[in-house]
Design goal:
Order of helices and strands: HHHHHHHHHHEE
Membrane topology: Multi-pass membrane protein
Number of strands: 2
Strand order of the largest sheet: 1-2
Protein name: Potassium channel domain-containing protein
GO molecular function, one term: potassium channel activity
Organism: Caenorhabditis briggsae
Subcellular location: Membrane
Structural class: mainly alpha
Distance between the termini: 57 Å
């Protein structure tokens, strides 16, 4: 059994070192991460759909009961705190007064901007946003799964998904920037300038996200800038009370681009201080392989001397 495991491990290791796998590994990881997020979104949707529906129904039922009880309490106090007087005098009048009180309470609740639980809080798109934000490690404290099965699934989902997501993102960024960093003309000082340029691009991108939040979601400029920077640094995103489901999806994708820029800054910084460990060894090896391919094989010629003996010599 142990020998089979060793043989399977060796075959897997040799397969991962093959040129074809290294060439297609970013695409394979992107597809694997996408399928993983879709699977997580579907599981969260199935776990939380019915409990959320029951929560919404219970909330509205309790609200209706509280309104009725409060209206009865107020109607009895209007008439010197006599509970049965209205019923003895005119029951229809009592019901009419209580109905008017309930309507007044509804208008008062509208002025208070009370936000009821939404039936779409755990729709499939919202579940996709939640699954995506978990892998992105964006703070989503405003929304947590309530069922035990969903909570247990979320733990294993994060343990597997977060390394998968960030390793995929880091590999894509490395594959895109490594040909540029291998340029012979890109000296250490120019790499430092490149790092500053990428950092400036990160700041501009974050400011652009803040402006989108300011004009589309929030009316406070500095609050929009704060939420843009915290979202770009995977700290938190605005509450869903102020932003739609599509807006949360946009912020998740925007935060992904921001994280990619931060990884790019990290890679350029490592190329400044550790160029040999990061790039040059692979560069020298690639140059040697290229030279071997370009060097023509030697040509041989058979020469027969006067004694009839043949000799093999190389020709230029």
């Amino acid at each position: 059994m142990l020998e089979r495991v060793k043989a399977s491990t060796s075959r897997l290791s040799s397969a991962t070192r093959s040129p074809h796998f290294q060439r297609w590994s970013p695409i394979i990881l992107v597809l694997l991460t996408t399928v993983f997020i879709l699977l997580g979104a579907t599981c969260f949707y199935l776990f939380e759909r019915d409990p959320q529906e029951m929560t919404v129904r219970k909330w509205y039922m309790n609200l209706t009961v509280e309104r009725r009880q409060f209206a009865r309490s107020i109607s009895s106090r209007i008439f010197n705190d006599t509970r049965n007087l209205l019923i003895i005098i005119d029951r229809e009048q009592t019901e009419r007064v209580q109905t008017l009180l309930v309507e007044s309470l509804k208008r008062y609740e509208d002025k208070l901007s009370i936000v009821p639980p939404s039936r779409r809080e755990w729709s499939w798109v919202s579940s996709f946003n939640f699954a995506y934000s978990l892998l992105l490690t964006v703070g989503a404290g405003f929304k947590v799964p309530v069922t035990i099965g969903s909570q247990i699934f979320a733990i294993f989902y994060c343990l597997i998904g977060i390394p998968l997501f960030y390793s995929t993102l880091a590999l894509i960024v490395y594959r895109l920037i490594s040909p540029v960093l291998k340029w012979p003309s890109l000296t250490r000082s120019r790499r430092f300038v490149l790092m500053l340029a990428v950092f400036g691009l990160f700041i501009l991108w974050t400011l652009l996200i803040g402006l989108c939040l300011y004009y589309q979601v929030l009316n406070d400029f500095w609050l929009s800038i704060f939420n843009a920077f915290t979202g770009s640094l995977t700290v938190q995103i605005p509450s869903p009370v102020h932003i739609t489901t599509c807006g949360v999806l946009f912020l998740n994708f925007a935060a992904t681009i921001s994280v990619s820029l931060l990884l790019l800054i990290l890679l350029v910084s490592l190329s400044i201080f550790f160029p040999k460990e990061l790039l040059l060894q692979e560069t020298d090896k690639a140059v040697e392989e290229k030279l071997e391919r370009l060097t023509p094989p030697p040509k041989f010629q058979v020469i027969v001397d006067e004694a009839g003996e043949s000799k093999l010599t190389t020709t230029q």
